[in-house]
Design goal:
By secondary structure, this protein is an alpha/beta fold.
């Protein structure tokens, strides 16, 4: 029979089996560490709040939401503000948007959000940024085909609709938004405009002084919502 002197360790020299099993169980229970670069991207990314345009609803954002999900955003980082587009920008809607942004920040724990607006939503979100405290809570602001200096087509419904009156050139809302600094604070601003826009007239109502203003070519007003090149440019701006 072999003895310890002949090659076998004495039992007292063997590691305790229960201790080994406990260590193995602990290692298996630990979650795998995410790659550092992925964690850094997630930490640097803001939730996105979409603000639709006149006579529209949150459903218009399907294409852009899908593109952002494909780029790594989770559904829990994408929010669509729905609202009655026939109400006053300054008296009602900007305040409601502010309350919505506050709720998004509470739910996500984010200090700031990014706002992507289309058409009339540009005026609502700009008023929130400039006069409603949004300068401290919005990081990136994007306007797709926004009537930022007013649009003459709004005269067609201005007689009976407050939102249309707010969109007319020279309205109280337009004057105040463009008085002084058009892009105030530390917010990063971008606009995207088309020279074939049948709703925003004149076409150069969209660009703002101090913003990154990007022409998208000959697209219809609503086509900016689903255009691949515009979507790619918006995504690039949000991570800038």
């Amino acid at each position: 029979m072999l003895t310890a002197r002949q090659g076998l360790l004495p039992l007292r020299a063997l590691p305790a089996l229960p201790a080994l099993l406990a260590l193995l169980t602990l290692c298996l229970a630990l979650p795998a560490a995410a790659p550092a670069h992925a964690a850094d991207r997630a930490a640097a990314r803001n939730p996105v709040v979409f603000v639709h345009g006149y006579n529209a609803d949150p459903g218009v954002w399907g294409a852009l939401r899908g593109d952002l999900r494909a780029a790594g955003y989770a559904d829990a980082e994408l929010f669509s503000f729905g609202y009655d587009t026939h109400l006053s920008v300054n008296e009602v809607l900007a305040g409601r948007l502010g309350a919505y942004v506050d709720r998004v920040r509470r739910e996500t724990g984010a200090a700031k959000v990014d706002v992507v607006a289309h058409s009339f939503g540009s005026l609502v979100s700009r008023w929130y940024v400039k006069f409603g405290g949004g300068g401290a809570t919005v990081d990136h602001w994007v306007s797709l085909a926004g009537p930022n200096r007013g649009t003459s087509t709004a005269w067609a419904c201005a007689l009976w609709d407050q939102a249309c009156r707010d969109m007319t050139p020279g309205s109280y809302v337009v004057k105040n938004l463009n008085g002084g600094d058009e892009t105030p604070g530390a917010v990063k601003y971008a606009t995207f405009w088309s020279d074939c826009d049948e709703i925003v007239n004149p076409d150069d109502s969209v660009p703002l002084t101090g913003a990154a203003n990007t022409p998208v070519g000959c697209l219809k007003h609503n086509d900016l919502l689903g255009d691949d090149a515009t979507s790619a440019a918006v995504r690039a701006f949000l991570v800038s």
